[in-house]
Amino acid sequence: MRPPLKSSKFIFWCFLLLTFSTYACAGQAGLPAVVSAALLRAKIPESAVSIYVQDVNQTAPVLAFNAQSASNPASVMKLLTTYAALDVLGPAYRWKTEIFTQGVLKGEQLKGNLIFKGYGDPKITLETFWLMLRELRQKGFKDLRGNIILDRSYFDLPNEDPAAFDNEPLKPYNLAPDALLVNFRAHRVRFLTQSITTRPRILVDPEIPNTPILNDVKLSNSTCGDWKEKINYQTSAQLTFTGQFAQACEDKSMHLVLLDNNTYFGLLFRQLWEELGGTWKGDIAVGAVPNNASLVAQFESPQLAEIIRDINKYSNNVMARHLFLTVGAAIRGAPSSPQRSSAAINDWLAVKGQRFLELSLENGSGLSRNERISALHLAWLLNSAFHSSVFSEFESSLPIVAVDGTMKKRLIAGNISGHAHIKTGSLKDVRAIAGYVFDAQGRRMIVVCLINHSNAEQARPVQDTLLEWIYARPIS
Hints:
The longest helix is centred in the first third of the chain and has 16 residues, at 7-22. The protein is α/β, with parallel strands linked by helices. It contains 11 helices and 20 strands. The chain has 3 domains: 7-92 and 304-472, Beta-lactamase, CATH 3.40.710; 96-162 and 259-300, CATH 3.50.80.20; 200-255, no CATH class. The protein has helices at 7-22, 33-42, 78-89, 126-138, 261-275, 304-313, 317-332, 338-351, 375-386, 391-396, 460-472, and strands at residues 49-55, 63-65, 70-71, 96-106, 109-118, 143-145, 148-151, 187-192, 201-205, 213-220, 231-235, 239-246, 251-256, 279-281, 284-286, 294-300, 373-374, 420-427, 430-438, 444-452. The strands form 5 sheets. Strands 4, 5, 6, 7, 14, 15 and 16 form a 7-stranded mixed sheet that branches. Strands 2-1-20-19-18 form a 5-stranded antiparallel sheet, sandwiched between helices.
C-alpha cells in the first residue's frame, strides 16, 4: 500500500468529508418534474430511488434525493474496486505469471514437472497462453515427461456453486476467480447456418475429447434478434443443444463455462502444446512451487489502466473480482480472500478519512444480492477520483454514452450522446448508473442514480431522462 497521506492531503480529504457530510441533504428539494413523470410511467415509487448530482467544482449538490440510503448498486460497485486499485496499485501495475521446472532438461526432453504459479492475472487470454507455451518451446522444451502442477495459492477462496446466484452455472459472468485463470475458462460455441441442412452446424472450441454434441437446434425463418434466448443447453456425458436458430443469423457465437479449472487447463495446454509440435505424458495436479524448482519464464499482464477498461466498459465480473482480491493482497498480504479484501478496502477508505457505515462488500464486482452502498458515498468516490492523479485513467475506463461499452446503444439520438462517461449496473430488481456528465454549459457533473424495486427493469427511461436533464440544465 502507498505510504500515509501527507498533512496537506489529509486536510484535503477532511475537507471533502466535511463538505459531503454538510451538504448530503442539500440541493434541489424534490426530483425534477421530468424524472418524477418518468418514474410514474415506470410504476416505480420515488422511495425506491436514490440520486446525487453535483458539479465537481462546487461544494453543494445540485440534487440530493434519498442519497444516504443504502442500496444495492449492482455493477456500479466496480467503481469502488477500480478506483481503489488505481490509487493503491497505480495505473502501471502488472500481474505476473511464473513457470518453473522441477527436473532435468536433456536435449528437448524434460524429465520432471512443469509448474505454473499464478498471481491473479485477470486477462490470460488464449493468445497470451499460446505465447507462454511458445516461449517454452523456444527455450528448448518439447517432450514433457512429468506432471503439470498448478499453484493457485495467491488466492484463498471458498468453494462456490456457480448455480447459486441465478441458476445459470454455465454463464461466464458466474465464473469464480482463480489465481491461475486461463482464457476465462471459456468455450466458444459457434452456430453456423448451412443452406442444405435443417440444423445449424455447432462447433465447440476448444474441442472436448470424448464428449459428443447432440444438436437438436432447428433452423427458422425468423429475424435474428436476441438469438441466444432461443437456444437451450445442458451438459452431462454429452453437450445437448435445443431450440431455434434463425437462418438470418448465419454465424453467431456464445461462450460457456463447461469444465472445472484443472480439466480446462489440462485440455487447453495439451491442445496448444501439440499444435506447437510438443508432446506431454503426464497429468494435472495442484500444489505449491517446490523449493528445488527453477524459474524458467515469467510473463506480465497488460497495465492496470488497460485492464480496468475491460472491467468498467464491459462490466466484466470475474476480472473485477480478481482486482478486488489483488487490492486485498496489496494491503493485507497474500493469500488474499474476499474477507481480507473487504477489510482492505475499508483500510483504504480510512486512510482517506472515510468510513462508509452502510458499505457491504462481498466480491467487489456487484454480482451480489448483499452488496450495499449509498448514492452519497458513490458520489464522494467520483469526486475524490476527479481530484486525484489517476482521474484520466479512471474516467476513460467508463462507458461513453451512445459510443461504447454497456452504454453503446443508449441515448443514441439524445443531446447527451458522446458527452458522458457512465457506469451501468443491473440485477433483478436493480438498475444503477454512476459517472460524469460533461453538460451543455461545459460543466463536469457527477451523477449517481440507484433504483432498487421490483419494477427496476423499467428504469432505463427514468435514468436516461435524468442524464438528459443534467446535460441540458441551465446555469443557475
